[in-house]
Amino acid sequence: MLSNLPVPRAAETFGQIDPELARQIAYAMSLTSSIEAPALHRIGMALVHAADLVPQPALDSGPVEKVGAILNFSQAATRETVLAGLDDDDADFAENVRKAIFTWANIPARIDPRDISRITREVDGITLIKAMAGAKGKDQPTVDFILSALSSRLADLMREEITALGKVTAKDAEEAMNAVVAAIRRMEAAGDLFLIAADAESED
User: Fold this and answer.
1) What's this model's pTM, rounded to 2 decimal places?
2) Is 59 helix (H, G, I), strand (E, B) or coil?
3) What is the DSSP letter of 196?
4) pLDDT at 201
5) CATH number for the domain formed by residue range(s) 102-203
6) Which of 7, 15, 24, 189 has its Cβ near the most Cβ atoms within 10 Å?
């Protein structure tokens, strides 16, 4: 199989194999120079058959990740009610879901300050200002975290824009915060940034 893969893909696969097994495979590849087409076809069919026997999950992600992703973009009241109920139903599952959740309030604990400038460039400016202007209570530390990670000139400019925007409804603020979170998730999925591992106790 490795002999027939493009070199970059074969190298990627090879790098994920146990070193001792990789050595054995490398030696086996040295014996393939005289292999005939019928034998190669039989080997290929055997590999396809083996792959078909590997159980394939019906869903594209586990229940923890799926519930966490749904709650990420649910209204805060719904999220808190669901998590409280899960605590009663299955405390271990609830704890794992909390680790999978990433919301606006989690930004200070799970984002490296050095990534904030790149995140602010990824998010629409008005959306970010609206999110910060509407942040209250447990969401306020995220505003302080973002501003402290930026240059003083840019932070002062954002403070002026927040003041000029004035009052933001809770609904508009939550939508803006979710938009920021969605942008961070897109960057994470693309490998442009990495979230710091969640601490279950800090999620409470």
Assistant:
1) 0.61
2) coil
3) P
4) 43
5) 1.10.220.30
6) 24
Residues in the chain, overall count: 204
CA terminus-to-terminus distance, the chain? 49
- Per the rule left: phi > 0, alpha: psi between -120 and 50, beta: everything else, 191 is left
Domain positions in the chain are 7-53, 68-101, 102-203
Cβ contact 153:183 at 8 Å: no
Q: Are 82 and 112 in contact (CB under 8 A)?
A: no
d(CA 41, CA 59): 32
pLDDT of residue 113: 94
Q: For the purposes of burial, counting CB atoms within 10 Å of the CB of 177, is it exposed (0-12), middle (13-18) or buried (19 or more)?
A: buried
Q: Which two tokens stand for residue 185?
A: 């998730």
- Tell me: pLDDT of 202 over 60: no
CA dihedral 93, 94, 99, 102 (to 10 degrees): 130
- Which tens digits make up the pLDDT trace of 86-115? 888 888 888 888 888 888 999 999 999 999
Q: Which residue has the tokens 């749904």?
A: 70
Whether 148 and 111 have beta carbons less than 8 Å apart is answered as: no
H or E segment at 24? helix 19-29
Mean pLDDT over all residues of the chain? 85
Alpha-carbon span 192 to 173, nearest angstrom: 26
- Which two three-digit tokens encode residue 191? 């490998």
Helix (H) or strand (E) holding 142: helix 140-149
